[in-house]
């Protein structure tokens, strides 16, 4: 008997030409892009973890929502995160999540997750450029700027 398996397809749809994509030049530009794309109706309600996919010129290919959580946390499956990065041929990534409370101090869980993703990225030649915590008013905390990446 012949075995059958499902075919897996992941799609990427982008109509913006590469020369028109926004370029990340510093943590502030990344935070501005991330905040402009965040749903302002939910940013104060629950944590959301996203990734900003960058090409080799640090232009933003897109932003992917990895997980939605509760008031004080969200569960990030690193395997799903890297499945998206690998399938989209992303060369660099900026990790993003919000703190609904407005507190910009990273938790130990935030730091641990960042290190786990960075180690996996090193293995796969995907640069983790930063991890930004976004507040509901648009302020941000940059792991890279604060030397903990």
From TrEMBL:
Keywords: Hydrolase, Metal-binding, Metalloprotease, Protease, Zinc. PROSITE patterns: MPN (PS50249), UPF0758 (PS01302). CDD domains: MPN_DUF2466 (cd08071). GO terms for molecular function: metal ion binding; metallopeptidase activity. One of its GO terms (biological process) is proteolysis. Residues 23-149 form the MPN domain. InterPro entries: MPN, RadC_JAB, UPF0758, UPF0758_CS. It comes from the Bacteria. PANTHER family: DNA REPAIR PROTEIN RADC, UPF0758 PROTEIN YEES-RELATED. This is DNA repair protein.
């Amino acid at each position: 008997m012949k075995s059958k398996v499902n075919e897996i397809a992941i799609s990427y749809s982008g109509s913006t030409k590469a020369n028109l994509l926004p370029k990340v030049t510093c943590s502030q530009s990344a935070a501005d892009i991330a905040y402009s794309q965040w749903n302002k109706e939910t940013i104060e309600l629950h944590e959301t973890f996203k990734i900003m996919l960058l090409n080799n010129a640090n232009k933003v290919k897109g932003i992917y929502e990895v997980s939605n959580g509760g008031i004080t946390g969200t569960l990030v499956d690193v395997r799903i995160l890297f499945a998206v990065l690998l399938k989209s041929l992303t060369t660099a990534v900026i990790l993003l999540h919000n703190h609904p409370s407005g507190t910009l101090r990273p938790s130990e869980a935030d730091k641990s997750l960042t290190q786990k993703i960075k180690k996996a990225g090193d293995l796969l030649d995907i640069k983790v450029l930063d991890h930004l915590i976004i507040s509901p008013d648009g302020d941000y905390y940059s792991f890279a700027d604060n030397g903990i990446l």
